[in-house]
Design goal:
Layout (H helix, E strand, L loop, with lengths): L1 E3 L9 E3 L13 H26 L15 H5 L10 E3 L23 H10 L13 E3 L20 H15 L2 H4 L5 E5 L11 H7 L9 E4 L13 E4 L6 H10 L8 E6 L8 E2 L2 E2 L4 H9 L5 E4 L7 H4 L2 E7 L8 H7 L3 E5 L13 H4 L1 E2 L8 H10 L2 H8 L2 H6 L11 H14 L1
Keywords: Glycosyltransferase, Golgi apparatus, Membrane, Signal-anchor, Transferase, Transmembrane, Transmembrane helix
Protein name: Exostosin-like protein
Organism: Cynara cardunculus var. scolymus
């Protein structure tokens, strides 16, 4: 070992070590250095073997599940997820899998409750030992109860089904009461989230069920102002859009294809908006758009649903995303996934995964009061920075962050949820 003092180019001193050699050029302590690597390898192997045994805990849960996380899988996780462990309750089939008999259950715009559950079942962060879990996922599908009258999800059973599930898990295992449910996760993918009603007035009047107010709610509903339906710890998630449908469209019409539709919208646009419970649908925004631009050849506006409408999105430059009953819309995800610039018309909306999706760089936001100026606004953007917005929109990371997959994929929507949960651990 040699110690060097400071000089004009160095401040302080540093240490350099070297093997001391004999006069004949052979290293001293030859035997030790020759076998040192084998001694080190045996020592480390014994250490990791002992550690794995010490960390083993028996599996305990409502049902019987076999399987463990592989060390290789764990190594693939980013550092922020290394400490995250999520326990997924095994509930009787009436709470989830029975509903899958209806094919729509796993494919409609509220199907994130199904997709997240499916992805977590095979996730690297899943633990089969609840005693080491940071969070507990409660897999209850409440949006698959479709009305026989209008075909839309009927939320009338949601509160009772969730309450029943909580009674079951709290009676079978002790973890609900450990933190009064604050480490338990629910999905509320309906219009007004955990208020479980499509009409805002009724949703606010009924509020979030008391037993969920301490818990974490993954919900599509999010606004930047105070609202009773987000009065629980919540993470805003995107509505469900089938990645298979997106890939199918892109295989025939790539997002770089020619876009011959300037402004696109297909959906409910009432000439005389329905007045339900004292509320006007879309706060009359969609009606104003139809009246103002219905005869404008630049605007491709259609009121009737069409199963293949994604093929129209991929042909469009701007896609209108006005509020409906709630601020959010599946058009947000569909537009981004297919390279159409989303035009968000929903005052105060809180968008999902702001850290991963640069919304201000890939979309436009137009105030509800300014829909009458929509034509001029879009003309100005088309003449100035449209190409920059489209370039940002084509970033595959942006698309990936808003789509759910059967298995968690790096950067996808379930991955973003796990990142958000891991950040809660760091607080």
């Amino acid at each position: 070992m040699e110690v060097f003092g400071s000089n004009k180019k160095r401040k302080g001193f540093y240490v350099r070590m070297k093997l001391l050699r004999s006069r004949h050029g052979k290293a001293e302590n030859y035997f030790f250095f020759r076998y040192f690597k084998w001694i080190l390898w045996v020592s480390l192997s014994f250490y990791f073997f002992a550690t794995s045994i010490g960390n083993h805990r028996p599996a305990t849960q409502l049902g019987s599940i076999s399987g463990v996380l592989s060390h290789a899988a764990v190594r693939l996780q980013p550092r922020s997820l290394m400490q995250l462990r999520v326990y997924v309750y095994e509930l009787p089939s009436k709470y989830n899998s029975d509903w899958i008999s209806n094919e729509r259950c796993g494919n409609h715009l509220f199907a994130s409750e199904v997709a997240i559950h499916k992805a977590l079942l095979h996730s690297q962060v899943r633990t089969f030992d609840p005693s080491v879990a940071n969070f507990f996922f409660v897999p209850v599908y409440v949006s698959c109860n479709f009305s026989t009258v209008n075909g839309f999800p009927d939320m009338v059973h949601a509160r009772g089904l969730l309450s029943s599930a909580v009674e079951l898990i709290s009676s079978e295992l002790p973890f609900w009461y450990r933190n009064n449910g604050s480490d338990h996760i629910f999905v509320a993918s309906h219009d007004y989230g955990a208020c479980f009603h499509a009409m805002e007035g009724r949703a606010v009047a009924e509020g979030i069920p008391e037993f969920m107010k301490n818990s974490i709610v993954l919900q599509t509903f999010g606004v930047k102002y105070h609202h009773p339906c987000q009065d629980a710890e919540n993470i805003v998630i995107p509505p469900y859009v089938s990645p298979e449908k997106v890939q199918s469209i892109m295989s025939t019409l790539p997002i770089t294809s020619r876009r011959d539709i300037f402004v696109f919208f297909r959906g409910k646009m009432e000439v005389h908006p329905k007045n339900v419970s004292g509320q006007f649908y879309s706060k009359r925004v969609r009606t104003q758009i139809l009246r103002k631009y219905g005869n404008d050849r630049r605007f491709y506006l259609r009121r009737r649903r069409f199963s293949g409408y994604m093929s129209e999105i991929v042909r469009s430059v701007f896609c209108l995303c006005p509020l409906g009953w709630a601020p959010w819309s599946p058009r947000l995800v569909e537009s981004v996934a297919l390279g159409c610039v989303p035009v968000i018309i929903a005052d105060g909306i809180r968008l999902p995964f702001g850290d991963a999706v640069p919304w201000s760089e890939i979309s436009l936001t137009v105030a509800e009061k300014d829909v009458g100026k929509l034509g001029r606004i879009l003309d100005h953007v088309a003449a100035t920075n449209l190409s920059a917005i489209q370039r940002n929109l084509r970033d595959p990371k942006v698309q990936r962050a808003l789509l759910f997959n059967d298995d968690v994929e790096e950067g996808d929507a379930t991955w973003q949820i796990l990142i958000a949960l891991s950040e809660k651990l760091a607080r």
